[in-house]
Structure formats: structure tokens, C-alpha cells
Write a structure and sequence with these properties.
12 strands; NADH Oxidase; about 15% strand; four-stranded antiparallel β-sheet; single chain; 2 domains; about 350 residues; alpha+beta; globular
């Protein structure tokens, strides 16, 4: 396999929301790749203005940079200003540089994964925090939410999950990306990786086939209670800490979010390198952004009120200015990696011309 394909074969393992993999690779020369980005804002409630996809593209570009160090190559990335924001184009150039040494994070690229189940509750050690914070580039800091704030975050996530489970807009996303009765998936999320027990998984599989079933469960059978307990409240307590990654200034456009995605990926790979597990907790941050911007995301009025409450409570925990500058929210802890996980589409399916 040519060197450039070896690098791309690692780059494709970067994380993306719901495993959408919003990138395609056009190999223009042995040292030049054109990355075709795209977003899902038109049909995904979680991709407000394409920001989640832009974070993912930034994480992929950083993974590409890290992978290239294994071949003594330095990477230069330039975004084409004339490309639409929803379909950004990036010229990636590889340059030989004798001063480049292989990154210690390379082995973490393919084993990094999401752990949605319980983690160890031991605190994140000072030396682990120091290494994680040092992994962030200039302009980004980590705000640790631990101790008593774990309970505050658990309650917040429990409340926020009601939005995710009761809105038709979220249902339309989930019904398309979950792969039922699967341990692995190249293009979605396998149900065994979601974090529900076997019984609730089967109930959810039945319900997710038709919005009317979801509505019936939620309306008459308290259908959100057990999923919120298993997916949000209990895991939020079973961790070492929650962490908010914050930019120095409020991110505004594609360049800001791709840079933030690069910072997040370095942080996550460093956590994997340290033997820590991680789960993104982005929905409260996304719903809070809708509220802050005064934009509707659902026709469900109750969910809109809940989102306003989530935004207010999250601002109360971290501060309003910090919340506006927040680019990533997640939890960390020791423990074993997930046995079920999302994989990636083969490189040949991601190549375009």
C-alpha cells in the first residue's frame, strides 16, 4: 500500500458524530490529498450549522497529521476559501522532514473508542490531568467537573436525555444510525455499544421501528425512565470526572471548529494512551447552543422548555462565558475499553476522484 494510503487508512479512524465519517479522500498526487468534507445539518438535529461535522473533520485532519509522523512526514493543511461551508475542501500536503519523529499517539488511533458503560470512579490523577492538559494546543483549556459536580452533571444529563428521547427530530436520526443485534458497525452504531441492558435494548429495537411506538411508550409507560437511568444518570456518576474543553474565544466558523476538533482528538488520543476511557456528552452543549442563539430545533414545546432549563443549569455549573466558549463535553475514567464499538468504512469506500 502506498504511504499516502497507509496514512489515510489511519486517519479514517477519527471519531465522528453517530459514525457519519463526513469526509472523502481524493488522492491528487503521492504527496497531495484533497479532503472533501460534508455535514449533515439538513437532516440531523445534532449538527447545528454543521459544527459537529466540522469538529469531526478537524479530528480527522489531526489524526492524519499524527499518522504522517510515522513516516517522517510533516502535514500542511489549507482550506479552500471558495468552497461552501457545508462542503468544505482542504488541500493536504505531505512534506519530508528529518526532524519529525513518530508520535507516541499513533498506537492509540485504532483502539480509541467510546465507552458508554460504567467506568472506574477513582479521581483522575494529577499527573494524568497534567498530560491531558498539555496535549491541548495553545488557546484551549480543560475545565474539570468532578467531586460533587459529578452529581450535578448526572442530573443535568438525565434531564437533557428527555429531549433526545421524546423529539421526533432526534428519533429520525437514531432510527437511521443504530445497527440492531450487532457488536460492530462500519457505518453506524451497533446496539451492543449503546449501553442498555439486553431487555431494554430489545424494547428499544421494537420501539424505534415506528415513531408512534416511541410516542406510546413515552406517553403511557414512562418510556424514557429506564433509558435515561441506564444511558445517562448512572454512567454520569460512574466515572472519574467530566471535562469541558474550552476555547480562548467563542468559535464562529469552519476554521474555528476544525481547529477545535484537532484539539479534542489530541486530548482523546492522549486519554487512550494513558489507559483512560472516554464518552462524549455533547447533547447538552448542542441544545444549549440552540437556546443561546434563540433558534428552534423541535416542534415539541415541552422539549424546548427542557432545553432552556438545561442551558441555564449548564451555565450555572460552568459559567455563561465558559459555556459559550465550550467546544467539547465528555466524561473520563479508568477501566476496560468497550467490547462493542463502531468501526469505519474501508478506505477504498472513502476514496473519490
Amino acid at each position: 500500500m502506498p504511504v499516502i494510503e497507509q496514512i489515510l487508512d489511519l486517519a479514517r479512524w477519527a471519531p465522528s458524530g453517530d459514525n457519519t465519517q463526513p469526509w472523502r479522500f481524493e488522492i491528487a498526487a503521492a504527496d497531495h490529498v484533497i479532503v472533501h468534507g460534508f455535514d449533515t445539518r439538513e437532516h440531523c438535529v445534532y449538527d447545528l450549522d454543521g459544527r459537529s461535522s466540522q469538529l469531526a473533520v478537524g479530528a480527522m485532519l489531526e489524526t492524519l497529521r499524527i499518522a504522517a509522523t510515522g513516516h517522517g512526514l510533516r502535514v500542511r493543511v489549507a482550506r479552500r476559501a471558495d468552497a461552501p461551508e457545508s462542503r468544505p475542501l482542504f488541500d493536504v500536503t505531505l512534506e519530508a522532514d528529518a526532524s519529525v519523529v513518530p508520535s507516541a499517539l499513533i498506537p492509540a488511533i485504532t483502539v480509541r473508542c467510546v465507552q458508554r458503560r460504567a467506568m472506574q470512579t477513582r479521581p483522575i490523577r494529577p499527573e494524568e490531568k497534567a498530560e491531558l492538559e498539555a496535549s491541548l494546543p495553545a488557546g484551549y483549556t480543560a475545565v474539570w467537573l468532578e467531586g460533587g459536580k459529578r452529581w450535578s452533571m448526572a442530573r443535568l444529563l438525565f434531564t437533557s436525555a428527555r429531549i433526545r428521547l421524546t423529539t421526533r427530530e432526534a428519533f429520525e436520526v437514531h432510527s437511521k444510525i443504530i445497527r440492531w443485534q450487532a457488536q460492530f458497525s462500519e457505518d453506524g452504531i451497533p446496539d451492543r455499544a449503546i449501553g442498555l441492558d439486553p431487555l431494554m435494548t430489545r424494547v428499544m429495537e421494537w420501539a424505534m421501528r415506528d415513531w408512534r411506538r416511541v410516542w406510546f411508550l413515552n406517553t403511557f409507560l414512562a418510556g424514557t425512565l429506564m433509558p435515561r437511568l441506564q444511558l445517562d444518570l448512572l454512567p454520569a456518576m460512574a466515572c472519574g470526572a467530566h471535562v469541558l474543553i474550552v476555547a480562548a474565544t467563542e468559535p464562529r466558523g469552519v476554521d474555528d471548529y476544525t481547529k477545535a476538533g484537532a484539539a479534542v482528538q489530541r486530548f482523546w488520543l492522549t486519554a487512550t494512551h494513558l489507559g483512560l476511557q472516554h464518552q462524549p456528552e455533547m447533547t447538552p452543549l448542542i441544545f444549549a447552543r440552540y437556546v443561546q442563539d434563540g433558534r428552534a430545533f423541535t416542534q415539541n414545546r415541552s422539549a424546548s422548555r427542557t432545553a432552556a432549563g438545561v442551558a441555564g443549569r449548564l451555565a450555572g455549573i460552568v459559567g455563561d462565558d465558559t459555556l459559550r466558549r465550550g467546544v467539547w463535553l465528555g466524561r473520563l475514567g479508568g477501566g476496560r475499553p468497550a467490547r462493542a464499538r463502531s468501526l469505519r468504512m474501508p478506505l477504498q469506500q472513502l476514496l473519490t476522484s
